[in-house]
Amino acid sequence: MTTNKPPRIGARPLVIALAVVAVLLVAAIGGTEAYARHKISRCISGAFEQQMGSNIDVGFGLRPILLSYVDGKVGSLTVDSEDNKFGPAIGMVVHAKFNDIELVDRGRGGGTVGSSSADVTWNNAGIQETLGTMVSGVRSSASTGVLTLDVLGGLAQLEVQPLVRDGNITVETKSAQLLGIGLPTDLVQGIVETFTQSLQSYPLGLRAQEVKVTDDGVAVHLSGGKTSLDTTDTRTGQQVEYRC
Prior knowledge:
- The longest helix has 42 residues, at 11-52.
- The mean pLDDT is 77.
- This protein has helices at residues 11-52, 65-71, 124-131, 185-198, and strands at residues 57-60, 73-84, 92-103, 111-123, 135-141, 146-151, 156-165, 168-178, 181-182, 207-214, 217-224, 227-229.
- The chain folds into 2 domains: 28-116, no CATH class; 123-220, no CATH class.
- Strands 1, 2, 3, 4, 10, 11 and 12 form a 7-stranded antiparallel β-sheet that branches. A 5-stranded antiparallel β-sheet has the order 5-6-7-8-9, with helices on one face.
- The chain is elongated and about 110 Å long.
- It is built from 4 helices and 12 strands, in the order αβαβββαβββββαβββ.
- The protein has 244 residues and is of the alpha+beta class.
């Protein structure tokens, strides 16, 4: 009496079948990760843009974004932005890193940032545009740490120096003269106040740690502790709903 035995599956077809399954699984995970990355990236970009006031490029750390999409936690992200406007300042360039981010309802309810750091550069052209028509030229010197502002069509020069005090930047007047005669106090004060406000208006709890005058403008290093990432547009004051 003979019995029918089931056909044996050779090793080669089995290996091929497992390889195909593995490829399909990786593709599925990769597709899901790409979808989650797109959704979270769009949501976080929207939230940070409301706070920073301009278009930004967001980069994520090593943690899979798929996990962030599930639990709302982002280990770290970097933000690069050109031509920011913080307060009265025009043309600031920002490179920032934010750590330990926790999103509420996948970002639709805002969230929190655990800590942050940022480097800001502000060139002389942006400084001149910010200070208005009274200032016709801006020159800066890394060796002296002083900026020279041409005032009244270049007939007068105002020399200022930015300094950090208790997390804020102040701008001191070093000299202000027109042909050896002091400039009017109101004129000098107005320019210095605009300059100071421009170097103090930073989002997301960032505070100044260091300021340097370069040969092309001003460089500022900032850091921040735990702060809220809310859904209020700083430009309009309105609540924004993010479609995450």
